[in-house]
Amino acid sequence: MLSKVEELKLISRCVLADDRRAFGTLVEAYQPRLRRFFMNLTLGDQYLSDDLAQETFVKAYIEIRSFRGLSRFGTWLFRIAYNEFYSYKRSQHATSDLDAVPEQAASPIESSEISMDVKTAMASLSDIERTVVTLFYIDDMPLKQVATITGLKESTLRSHLHRAREKMATTLNHD
Length: 175
Fold this sequence. Notes:
The protein is mostly helical. 71% of the residues lie in helices and 0% in strands. The chain is built from eight helices and no strands. It is elongated. Residues 97-111 have low confidence and may be disordered.
């Protein structure tokens, strides 16, 4: 993980000298977390996750000059990712596309019962609940940062987390 100072140096190099290697360093630092974020939102659809991550990094590179440094680069990047995912969802016009676990997402490595239970539990959540659970529990972001990324109030996020925990518990206890 890069420190805030290291991030700001890299961003300065991107803005002032159009240094693509500096942006590449930022991509390397955030790519695993961003891909995991999308994998959770898409319920394991690796191809869609990769496409969304790529689009997020392209938009971040294009808009890097708009980064003000008021928050960490990761918060800004995840806000772009959040918007990218919901733009994709809106463009599909069919909300049921991501409500089932994709066939191609299953792999022999992920076939353990625990992995399947978690996927089933995550599939029982709405898109926003899955987003909040991913950011708060999986990416271990503080509620304030999740609020910045999603644009929702902290009280609303707490409600989503509460409902998500109940849904997941019901799904896991049912199975």
